[in-house]
Write a structure and sequence with these properties.
The complex is a heterodimer of chains A (345) and B (245). With 345 residues, chain A is α+β, with helices and mostly antiparallel strands. Chain A folds into two domains: 208 residues, no CATH class; 113 residues, Beta Barrel (Cyclophilin), CATH 2.40.100. Chain A contains four helices and 24 strands. In chain A, the strands form six sheets. Chain A has a seven-stranded mixed barrel. A six-stranded antiparallel sheet of chain A has the order 7-6-9-4-1-11, with no helix packed on it. A five-stranded antiparallel sheet of chain A has the order 2-3-10-5-8. In chain A, helix 1 packs parallel to helix 4. The longest helix of chain A has 24 residues. The model of chain A has no long low-confidence stretch (mean pLDDT 94). Chain B has 245 residues and is an alpha+beta fold. Chain B has two domains: 78 residues, Gyrase A, domain 2 (2-Layer Sandwich), CATH 3.30.1360; 151 residues, Cyclophilin-like (Cyclophilin), CATH 2.40.100. Chain B contains five helices and 14 strands. In chain B, strands 5, 6, 7, 9, 10, 12, 13 and 14 form an eight-stranded mixed sheet that branches. The mean pLDDT of chain B is 94. The chains are: A alpha+beta (345), B alpha+beta (245). At the A-B interface, strand 16, strand 20 and helix 4 of A face strand 2, strand 3 and strand 4 of B.
Chain lengths: 345, 245
């Protein structure tokens, strides 16, 4: 089995997939990748299942040594990346060799970077997912963020597939602005707010405070007026729910949110805008605008189509070679080539 | 309870089913009935259900079903929910060591309510507590049914770490901490039973709709049960709840 050794862990690096489903009724949060779109792009680039477990890197990346040849891809927030001192591109497959050292620098656009490895990481699933949930200390590597010296196992994959290096089309690569418009579905407790309060919410810019993590984002801005107070009888919280406690400033509930809560929810960020929200950093700005449920569902379908089309396009171009064939990587004038050598009868 | 449930959008993947606007056993039973009916005859596209005090949040996959069709399905479930016969509720028995270092606030709870420590133990262990919902931390039960005679305000400053298994009182609620966590509840005892273990199947011991009985034990019993729990040989005692008993 091949491995990745962690030389530097980065600021906050965890394992994430699509999270735990079906356990919120027992009080267990979903967790999973904050920017699920970027996670899926990374997996597609290395030929994995779209929701296989990847590394989620926050703000500043790790340095990693590889013990065998493998393929990786980096997506999400943009940052400088080097392999053995040479700069490599994000949003395309990178072939790494035994002893290669990958260094991921500081993010300059967005906030979270995703690293997928071909075959994915070999980790136990806890309640159906390998996602690290830090507060509950479950998932990933012993429920913890990456530490210096950690050794990550990579799953074996069938060798007799010639793997084309993949490059993400320019139009699919997300742009992460530091001031964004986010679409929301109003409710479920929009009737807890005055018409003036609704106007405040939809008409003003809110700033992301430093109190923002995988659980939730506290925003700062114009105070939203309630009708008769902020408290409701605790009920289930969807991903992207916008709670407004009595102080009048919104909190957006993210991947590690608790399953239930007792503050009125004025609106809920639509699924397709969660990823851009996940790439905000403290000081960035958000404006909210309301859309209808059918519009939100159209966007989910369009995004799903993009992802399935991409995966299908790459798979079509993948060549399956005979078991006797050998694949060599050769480097000529700084360019890397893969050569398949097979005996002809 | 509302004559008919209210259905509301909770983002583009959720339906919030509101059954009433209070906390009551009647509303809880309707929620149990709805959850049971949905589980018995699920429709394609349901991802999960999160039952709470007066509502259920249903998460669905919009690639498989529209919001309108999901609500139509739920209305059909609701119209036949009165015909459902629910399986009887279980009582889960929590052996509990009261007072001493395991429940250091019991003296305060007693003096706050002008009772003796023995009376606090007697009142607390006499109750049957309905699990309305789980949440807050993995496996934490929100319980109803505590006697007002022992209700006590929270600590003014929360403790940094409360040991898992601790049994506490906050206002007119009682509860058990499933994992080591910070908290401001008045601690009156501790159970050796493990409520949450991510490596166990099922990871969470309790279910909403069950009742909890706190059964007082002594230190030697506590140690004995602790050993059995660690060895994986302890069988949690469960009995059938009969209404009115």
């Amino acid at each position: 089995m091949s491995h990745m050794k962690i030389i530097e862990p980065g600021l906050l690096t965890t394992f994430q997939d699509d999270g735990r489903k079906g356990y919120q009724q027992y009080g267990v949060p979903v967790a999973g990748a904050m920017d699920s779109f970027a996670m899926q792009l990374a997996n597609i680039l290395v030929g994995n299942h779209r929701n296989d477990v990847v590394l989620e890197i926050t703000m500043k990346g790790p340095s990693i040594e590889f013990t065998a040849k493998t393929y990786i891809a980096l997506t999400g927030g943009k940052c400088p990346v080097t392999l053995d001192g040479n700069s490599v591109n994000m949003y395309e497959t990178v072939c790494v060799h035994k002893g290669s050292i990958l260094k991921i620098g500081q993010v300059y656009e967005g906030f979270r970077v995703y690293l997928a490895v071909r075959g994915s990481f070999d980790l136990p699933k806890i309640m159906g997912s390998a996602s690290t949930y830090l507060r509950g200390r479950i998932g990933g590597l012993e429920g913890d963020k990456l530490r210096v010296g950690a050794v990550l196992s990579i799953k074996e994959i069938s060798k007799n597939r010639y793997f084309n290096l993949r490059k993400m089309p320019e139009e699919v690569i997300p742009v992460y602005d530091d001031s964004i418009d986010v679409k929301v579905i109003l409710g479920p407790e929009d009737d807890s707010f005055t018409p003036e309060g609704m106007k405040t919410f939809l008409g003003n810019e809110y700033i992301l405070t430093h109190q923002c993590d995988r659980m939730g984002y506290r925003l700062e801005g114009a105070k939203i007026e309630h009708r008769e107070g902020a408290d409701i009888i605790s009920s289930g919280i969807s991903l992207g729910a916008i709670q407004v406690p009595s102080h009048g400033e919104p909190i957006i509930m993210m991947a590690d949110r608790q399953p239930t809560g007792g503050y009125a929810k004025i609106a809920n960020v639509i699924s397709c805008d969660i990823s851009r929200l996940a790439q905000l950093k403290p000081g960035d700005k958000v404006r909210f605008s309301a859309v209808r449920i059918d519009e939100a569902h159209q966007m989910i379908k369009a995004q799903e189509q993009t992802l399935t089309d991409l995966a299908a396009y790459y798979e079509k171009n993948e060549i399956v070679v005979s078991e006797r064939a050998r694949i060599f990587s050769i480097r000529v004038k700084e360019k890397q080539y893969e050569v398949v050598v097979e005996e002809i009868k | 309870m509302y004559p008919k449930c209210k259905y509301a959008l909770s983002g583009d993947r959720g339906v919030l089913i509101e059954v009433g606007n209070t906390i009551s056993e009647a509303i809880h039973y309707k929620i149990r009935g709805l959850v049971y009916s949905i589980e018995q005859c699920p429709c394609n596209g349901i991802v999960e259900l999160i039952p709470a005090y007066n509502s259920i949040l249903l998460i669905y996959d919009p690639l498989l079903i529209t919001y309108e069709k999901m609500v139509a399905y739920l209305k059909a479930i609701e119209s036949s929910v009165h015909e459902i016969e629910l399986p009887p509720s279980e009582i889960v028995h929590m052996p509990t060591l009261y007072g001493g270092e395991y429940g250091e606030d019991i003296g305060y709870v007693a003096s706050y309510n002008n009772l003796t420590v023995e009376e606090v133990v007697q009142i607390h262990s006499n109750g049957l507590y309905l699990i309305y919902m789980l949440g807050f931390t993995p496996g934490f039960p929100y319980l109803g049914g505590m006697s007002d005679a022992i209700s006590t305000p929270r600590l003014s400053a929360p403790r940094e770490k409360i040991t898992k298994g601790s049994v506490g009182i906050a206002g007119n609620q009682t509860g058990i901490y499933p994992i080591d966590s910070p908290g401001g509840w008045q601690l009156i005892g501790r159970t050796p039973i493990v409520l949450f273990d991510p490596n166990r199947e099922p990871a969470v011991l309790l279910r909403s709709g069950q009742y909890i009985s706190f059964d007082p034990i002594e230190k030697d019993e506590y140690d004995e049960i602790s050993r059995a729990v660690s060895a994986g040989t302890y069988q949690v005692k469960k009995t059938i709840y009969v209404k009115g008993k």
